[in-house]
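Regression test attached.
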Amino acid sequence: MKHGKEEKTTVLSFSNPVKSRLGGETITRCYQCGTCASSCPVAKINPQFNPREIIKLSLLGEEAEVISSDAVWLCCSCYNCQERCPQKVEIADVIYALRNIAFEEQHSPDIYLEFASALMNNGRLIPISKFLEKKRPDYGLPPLQPTGVEALKKILSAIGLGGQSQKEEAK
Amino acid sequence: MTSYALFLGCTIPARQPNYESSVRKSLSKLGVELVDLPNMTCCAPPPIESINLESSMSIAAYNICLAEEANLDLVTLCSGCFQSLAKTNAMLKADKHLKAKINSILSHTGKKFEGSKEVKHYLQVLVDDISIKRIRQSISKPLHNLKVAAFYGCHALRPSELLKLDDPENPRILDDLIEALGAKSVEYQNKLKCCGGLLRGVSDELALDLAREKLVNTSKAGADCITTLCPFCFIALDIGQIQLRSKLNETYDMPVLHYSELLALSLGIDPEELALDTHKIKIDKVIRKVT
Amino acid sequence: MEEVEVGVFLSDCGKQLSKILDFNALTNYVEKISNVTLVKRDSEFWRGEGLQTIVDAVTSGKINRIVVAESLPKLSEVNIVQAVENAGLNPYLVEVIDLKDHCAWPHRETPREATEKAKAMLVAAIERAKLLEPIEKLEFPALKSALVIGGGIAGMQAAVDLADLGFKVNLVEKAPFLGGLAARAGRFFPTDDCAICIQSPASDVKTITHTSRKCVYRSGFSEIPNLNILTNSKVTDVEGGPGNYKVTIEKRPRYVNELKCVRCDLCTPVCPVEVPDEYNAKLKTRKAIYMNIPNVHPPVYVIDDSVCKFRGCAKCVEACPTDAIELDQKSEQVTLNVGSIIVATGFQEFDSSIIKEYHYGDYSDIITHLELARMIDGFGPTGSVIIRPSNRKPAKKIVMIQCVGSRDRRWNAYCSGICCMISLKHAMLVKTAYPNADVTICYIDIRTTGREHERYYERAREMGIKFVKGRPTEILRDPKTNKLIVDVEDALLKRFLELEADLVVLASAMMPAEGTGELAEILGLELDEDGFFKEYNAKLRPTETKLRGIYLCGGATFPKDAPTTSLHAHSAAMKAAKFLTTGKIVKDQRTAIINEEYCGDCEFCPVTCPYGAISLVPTTEEHFVAQVSDLLCEGCGVCVGTCPLNAIELRHSRPNQMLVQMKALMSVNGTSKPLVLAICCSECGHTAVDSSGMAMMQYPANVRVMKVPCTGILQVHQFLEAFKAGAQGVMVVACKSDGCHYEVGSQKAETKVELARTLLKEYGIEPERLVMFGMVFIEGDKFAEAAHVMTERLAKLGPLQMKGEA
Ligand code: SF4
Ligand code: SF4
Ligand code: SF4
Ligand code: SF4
């Protein structure tokens, strides 16, 4: 699932792997109007992050710069940009697609590895403490149902992520 | 009696018994049954979407399949869960190629996504199934003196084309529900901007910057409290205040309540039953105005 | 029945062809074919002595069917057919083929194979010629009058052109006054002179004070002979066809007698009803009885019946010194008979309030360019002063936003094309009047194509107008100061700007005029995906529609500036004039014919015919049968291919004619390769074969070409017939599906080829043996390549083994 690895010098085709991924399909529609940037609450306060720029860099083939930088992880997925983009670029989804590539290339912040292993192990992102679980009757809450960890593992390994997140856990 | 499969998610059972019990108790009082189905998982929210979109979509679809099998629509309390599940539901219903692709992944779990059920946020259940009018009639303790800042957050509203909760540029659903309780919904600047919740852990500083903006603007508008419809927004604004105090020595003291808590209080449910000690910022001010 | 006697004329193109083809062998071969009574060879047959040979043969009565092998058949055919007709034979008994570009040139490397193919081509032509039948020419009377719908620049220009040429013209405008959007625009780029001049085109014929350009009140527009102007009127129904339309118009009452009103303006002061003046951007009010601006046309007041109190008031009636006001006027139905129709309905501004984040409609200091134009106009509501509508104080800081609802997939994906220039115009007009004004234009791209337009943009920069490259996300309003704040990223600086503004002006998109869809339905015209009227061909027939007799011009097909609109209008008028000028429509009967006994009243053909030529008419037994209008039918055959009961045939392309051709083309091989039948449409398909031959591209001689009017005529069973006739493979060569000259023909053929591919399996025929290709005329290389690929594929597949055959 690695894209564009051997094209480090001429990477103009980076928009192709992005476009052919789930979430990235609309990237080439962008005509750089900047509506997304001025809609973005993060870009407004952090000059490191600008969705328009991330898209431009991707379209120009600057894969390494996009994938290895922190910027792509600063989107808060608020979809403000996507809602207003006149070209219906699915910007937040494009950023997910870029993050997916970055994750595969092992450029993601550590917390995402934690998320991955939590998901594999518990079927939940956030573990529920025994303490809280015991206290549920006191709050008048019914006991928790079992989670479908097994199904989840099957899904992840069908996609080829099962092994990967274990690898990352080992790290 | 209307029944829904309840999608609880991860954060609520792990952190917010106040949210869970207020929703369960007020909905049951209003005649909605919530069914707890076994074998649900995480909804695969943005952190998982960031890792792999196909997986997150498959996981969301898997959970919808459980509801389909039980022949129930799904209701969520968390905007993150709502977004993941409703978005997936809408996308798979609209795109048969995508549906086939996801179903081929789901086949490993023995499930098949049909597209026969709806995914709703509980606010939609309140408005569509119960109605503003009935809520107004059912409350015993109207919140006449309360000025409430409605905070929608992002994930329940957008992408609006798929979620269809309300007009993303001018949402009313939460404001209407607040006013149904007799309280006043106050306008404040940048009401629709993000709380920064999802940046916590990635860039805490940025997350706090965004949270601060909300606290400053709602205080300026004279709100007694902020009301949320999502556990992440709740954390960002409630625990966020503790962090702002400890790290930057900024104090706001702005109570943050879930809408369901306001609802439960005005339905006359005993505050003792609502696990209100979960709140980091004390909400006594608000309780005092209710009783 | 008269004996069929075929004359065959073989041109060797000045001995060029005989270097490749063995003409003696061809002559010998042809002479032996039954009913061939004359065979001649010459260097050319389409002019001079050669042509005379044909004419002599016809006049002598020796022959009554003619086959000519001539180069450049698309050209030579015209001459030959004309000469034959003059000589007294029905011109449709002639078959012209091209042995040069379809045979000798592309197979010059294999002359022997080429000669064998030429034999097959000649037999095919001869066999078809034998079955040809005379086709009549029909004449339909046409009224020398026209209807022009829409009284803006386009409609007025076209109407005057036609009136000057002597046609009777009816100009219908749905508003109470002429002028359309142009009249509201005030001034036009790039000359900045007043729009109202262009609004009213000068008639060259009648006006007494003839100058080169006249504004509406100098043009004498209403006095132009032959021109009947109907304002406040709407087309509600159109019946009939080209040359003879019956048009029903609803004429709404004006309540003021046009002949009596003297524009004394005594009525408005007494009228007690005051409403916001929409025409003037609601910046002022008007009375129930009003004129838009003083110099409108017709120069007659009108009463707005949605607000007038009528008999409850009638103050104006008392005030009017000439008794012009007639409160009892009623809507009238007017019926007109016209020969031709020109649609000039223009465009309208997009409703920007749909874009919620821009708050148009919420904040009154956000306006559109059409509204700003009213402020700039000296006749406008503010007398040329630029104000903030919220407090009527002068606006000093102005921000303009481009592409509002244009280039936006959520609303209108296209670029409206003229709004960049409009913004530049308005920015400069404001700056000229108020040199200290601060004007900023937020743009995505500035589009200034057109003569003088780039210079216009440069002048704007010289004048100090600021440009920010960025599309704002939102317009906010500071509740305290009421100032607007435009939130935008300057993408070049990568900097966020909050531009403060007294007035924000939106360059709103231009959309099809209201009622466009409804009118399209009435006229049977198609709209494009953006909702504008679709022309017949954007490149070659930009003002024609697929319906003969109906023309389009101006913004009805897409937003246009004034100069382009004028050009367009003149073009439409010219086309209509050409159509009407003789007072009759001459058309041959190369049309579809229905076998009423077979027709099962299934309604397939009426909906399929791209020209609306088929209708179902009742028969005696309470049944309906399809009927073709010879006037409307274009002879494509799409209906033939659609009819499930084989009830339709084309007079000039009957199934038996096609069958003998197929068989003949497959009767001689002469190559070691599998025979391929290439069924080509007469438009791009067949001409692509021409162009590959002209360029001497080589492909194998086993590929044989058969021409049909349009591939839409093909029926599934004909593919099977082709294989039975000996084809090892069949190519269907047509226009690209979006470029079909008969609109839907190649799409229909595509689906039939798909269907046939599955059915052929039943007969043991591999689906790969039937392939459809779409190409345009210049893609001769594509044809040659397809011929190669097909031949190789068939060689690999091996000989065809049909089930049930040995
Ligand atoms: S808003 Fe859309 S088109 Fe404009 S820069 Fe952003 S992604 Fe590109
Ligand atoms: S989704 Fe991401 S890029 Fe878009 S506005 Fe929100 S934070 Fe910015
Ligand atoms: S002409 Fe200019 S303003 Fe109008 S849509 Fe095109 S680019 Fe946008
Ligand atoms: S031949 Fe073509 S134009 Fe004529 S009736 Fe048939 S489909 Fe219509």
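Expected vs. actual: identical. The first helix of chain A runs from residue 15 to 19.
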